[in-house]
Amino acid sequence: MAAFNKKFSNLEKKVDVLLETLAEAVALLKLQITKEPDLSPNAMNFPIESTMELEHFNSIITPELTDFYINKLRNLMGTSTSMACSLKNVLDEKLILEYNLDGTSGKSSLKNCKEFYNVLESAVKMKIPNEPAEKVIRKAIHNSKNSHFQMSSREKKLKALATLENN
């Protein structure tokens, strides 16, 4: 009987160790699942290229996915010192030209895409914590547009020079 009790006690200890190990594994799995949710049906390609894609992205951002997308956008924006360049990793340049924050001057409002804007604003706050995020985003949009129009102007001048030289 003593041998049986000893074996039973050893088995209990082993089961307890297994239970602890299993609990740790389950906790790690849960943590991994919350970090990387399964987004395959709603997976987004970046940069976002159209208003339709932006509206779709805005509609799939749920409270459960907010942190995931904040980190995703923060990673997309990278370590570039130019916020305008960073923004182009999230939104295509052509889409940036169609939007501004408030929807003035015949442009669409980025703030109307509330979920997307909140995620973008949070990602910008993490990237540049000592500046107001709205001001940083507004300036990045302005700089992107300015860069686009300067490039466009240079191309027109080069084409004009090329046609003059050919004649």
TrEMBL record:
Residue span, DUF4806 domain: 43-120
InterPro entries in alphabetical order: DUF4806
Domain of life: Eukaryota
Name the UniProt record assigns to this protein: DUF4806 domain-containing protein
Gene that produces this protein: LOC26532751
